[in-house]
Write a structure and sequence with these properties.
Layout (H helix, E strand, L loop, with lengths): L1 H21 L17 E6 L4 H14 L1 E7 L5 H22 L3 H13 L4
Parallel strand pairs: 1-2
């Protein structure tokens, strides 16, 4: 039990270091979607749990999707709005390739993949 607690503490410290290091750094959010032949890039902000991060990366790679973190946990309203606009247009492109219910399929795979990480 102590070993698990120690590992959790170390993981938490690493997470805090990365979060603090990235706080305040934002990437310019460009309006519009990407080219149809490229990888689908969704913008994110904040930090998902490690379990969900690894599961999402695994499933996203299979689907040709990339998640790019553009800001930390504290995000200006403008960034939130531009991120939503960008992600909505990318989602439309993904729907053209995988069908309208692509998100349901993706989320089901994500749920299954997340069970493999503890």
């Amino acid at each position: 039990m102590k070993k698990n607690k120690s590992l959790f503490t170390i993981a938490l410290l690493i997470y805090c270091f990365v979060s603090i290091r990235c706080t305040g750094q934002t990437t310019k959010v460009e309006e519009g979607a990407q080219k149809k032949d490229s990888v689908f890039t969704f913008y994110t902000y904040g930090m998902p749990s490690a379990k969900m991060h690894y599961a999402r990366e695994k499933v996203a790679k299979k689907w040709g999707i990339v998640y790019k973190t553009i800001a930390g946990c504290e995000v200006a309203d403008e960034i939130v709005q531009l991120t939503k606009k960008h992600n909505d247009s990318v989602s439309e492109l993904v729907a053209k390739k995988y069908g309208e219910n692509w998100r349901v399929k993706f989320d089901n795979e994500l749920y299954k993949a997340s069970k493999n990480y503890k």
